[in-house]
Amino acid sequence: MTRIMGYADRISVQPGGTLAVMASCIGAQRYRADIVRLLSPNAGMGASEYREVQVDTPANGSYPAREQKMHAGSFAVVPEKWALKGIESFTLQAYVWPTTPKKGAQALMGMWSEAGTGFGLAVDATGAAEIRIGGFKLASGVPMLERRWYLVAASFDATSGQVRLWQEPIYDKSFHAERPVAVEGKTRASVPDDGAPFLFACWRKGEAEASTAWGRLLTGGHFNGRIDRPRLARKALDRAAIQALAAGMLPSGLEEEILGFWDFSKDVAGDRITDLSPNRLDGDVVNVPTRAVTGHNWTGAEMDWTKDPAQYGAIHFHDDDLSDAKWQPDFSFTVPAGAPSGFYAAKLVAEEASFYVPFFVRPKRGTAKAKIAFLASTATYTVYANNRGRFLSMRTELYQGRISMMDAVDILQLEFPEMGVSTYDRHTDGSGVSTSSRLRPVTNWKPHGRLWNYCCDLFIIDWLEHTGLGYDVITDHDLHVEGQDLLRPYSVVITGSHPEYWSLEMLDALDGYQRQGGRHMYMGGNGFYWRIAYHPTNPNIIEVRRSEDGVRAWDARVGEYYHQFTGEYGGLWRRQGRAPQVATGVGFISQGFDASSYYRRTEASRDPRVAFMFEGISDEILGNFGVLQGGAAGLEIDCVDPALGTPPHALVVARSENHSNTYILVAEEINIGHGALDAVQNAAIHADLTFFETPNGGAVFSTGSIAYAGSLPVDGFDNNIAKLTTNVLRRFVDDRPFTLPK
Q1: How far apart are the C-alpha atoms of 502 and 477, rounded to whole Å?
Q2: Domain coverage including residue 440
């Protein structure tokens, strides 16, 4: 069976710019690559015919196939340094919090290799702490419990061969009846000076693969759990000295013996680990483990890691973290000077297998080719990247009332779990996934399959093509960096079917644009919901902390609500004074996936302020059709709420009705879990088609429904949803200012 997959080094590129495409192909000698522009989704019956247009470029052609592997698992590495050479006697110690102690042998720290050389602390196959020196192993014999802190330490005296190991539970106000464990042994093993790096949360598995672009060592024994205050001494220390070394400050009298005195509470936002000893054995973290997490000494008195970093000195490592596949480029594509802005992809085909590598062509910075901009929700696309839970969760079919469908590309994610997961999934140790990267193959960014996010937004692109009004495509990544300057040249900015994840920079830019007279068409549901943070140096990586409230796949642990990348409080924008209703007039109220419904016009739709919207439309029922579950109002829906920021002059011109009992109030709307919570019993559950004017001649139009986009192409766009939406767009493009009602 042939398999092919790939990704690009950039998500947004302008004419004259170049991006590189990385590919991996198994089961074929060669593969074909073509750059295509995507104009509609492959959505089947009821939608437009699928359209992709090949771009004339030298990048199109046949390429030799090769397999490029992915190496999942986060760890930290201190490169070979002089202070690590010539070690004979030593002490290793750290506070550890194992999350899968019985999954098999796992590394904690050291220079041990699977070849049987070096030394290191580990967790053995039973979950007990263990010291390894060459082929010698000494374990505590007592399995550690999941999610409990321990001080683990080991010493080796090279002269006497004496080995000592301590495994001591840390008091945590619980009623665990564990006792400290101390064991001893002897060995003639020595510590060879082989110039190895010092590693945390993994050990060496072998030499670097010839195909790895970065030449990293292959690693194994990846640890699931947290490590706090690791230490390395060049002497076999006694228990009292170990305790002193475990304290927060470098102890006097031990300065000469200390090789490494790492403080993981430093540089939490970045990719470095800091050594406070004179040796400066600083290192790097790989694959973005989770930081800004509570350490062994967290008291609960401070919830913000930036206020007391000493209580957040742990790093949570996972064996399935992946921030960058680090593949070598196969070919590059330079965007022609006259290329129109839009959705693009490198289409990779090998025999029966195919894979789309998406990217977006935007106008050159500071310019605009049209009066209309579609803002591609690349932040949301990234957060959802490789959503494995859709296939593995027992709830998916229950929610949708039908069997889940998978295609060959979806199956890749199950065949290659090392490609990583989305922030809608949990790690193998059960903890929530808080970061996601697009620098890896992504199976759910494609113009076919599940009509959600990326694929669903192609319905809007198809409609824009049909209007003939012309448009540019810009991205969340562009907006985060360039702010309001990116939006300023446009009369209208259209956000997509599900623009759920927003950074502060993005939200401020949209707010400024609307207040300066910009027109905004919000074409979806459950938008502007979660706050995100971009990695400080790598914008391809995004973080979300699912704190306290909201409809969420997992809960952030208490004390871990603040982002590691920025120190900003995470969670819902609603809980931070920026509810979606402020920007769009509507906000998330319910979700249901069995069927979509329709809108019924309200008396407000007769208001002269919105007469333009209903030109040529006499229907009272709007959108009782659609590709997405049969209607325009469904999947995830929004409604107005003046208490959360809907402007008092906003007009609800149509309101959905007749939703099924699978549509339940969202969690943030429920204070007491009792009473009428579903749409059959609760009239508050509906989608509101909303309009309001903004200062300086601007206006906002909101659909309040993800399913809305799927109604646009029905009957070749000859339907009341497409007509109404086109009426709005034509009026929003018109330079005549809107007037705020008195």
Answers
A1: 10
A2: 365-388+430-588+601-657+688-733
